[in-house]
Amino acid sequence: NCSSFLIPTNSIHNNLRTIGGIAAINTWNAAAKDQDEFFFLDHDDSSSSEPYYPPLTGHELESRKSEILLIAKLNHGDTPTIADFKKHWFSERGSNFEALLTHADHNIGRGMEHWEEAQGIFEDLIRQDPTFLEPKARYAKLLCLQGNFDESCKWAQQVLDSKPWHFVTLETMVANHTGKGNTIMTELWMARRLPTMKRKDERRLWVDRALEDAGVILTRMEALKGQGK
After folding, report:
1. How far, in Å, CA of 179 to CA of 67, rounded?
2. Given this model, what pLDDT does residue 48 score?
3. How far apart are CA 166 and CA 168, in angstroms?
4. Mean pLDDT of 172-191
């Protein structure tokens, strides 16, 4: 069995609509040279040799199970909404962290004069709990808005390693590669966006791949926990 992290090269263009790979193609031509083999979508940040997974605590396990249920419901219309995912993501570390994260995220939209305060909050939350992914997702978004595309990709990658379906971070990657002028990478990340309900077949495929990825990643996290990592 091949997980959705593996895409057949003989149908590479058709399969660009999947979210399956965690990151991007660094060696597109080399990967496509053998039409009969599969290739792994390598990390967008070539300096990172291993994907980042937070420790699988009891709380993390329950949170991931809840998120899997939210993903599954995406096939049934616009419920859950993006706001439901945002509430889930922001509340993963309790009400105090949620309040700070909400304030910082609100500051992003208030204008550039509030970005410094937002950045300080994100950085502080990341220092307090490096396993909390959502501050990294919002920090990556802010860095992108500031034009710091490479640094934004680094933080976004940590989120996508663990949650390749995170549609806010997928949008951040689109914006990063657009800003960098990389057309191929921009199109790749655009293809991983959550399709609208009008594109039912593509949306169903997206959800199926997201659920498959969620299961694969949870299995890997359980294995790491068993190894004491």
Report:
1. 31
2. 46
3. 6
4. 94
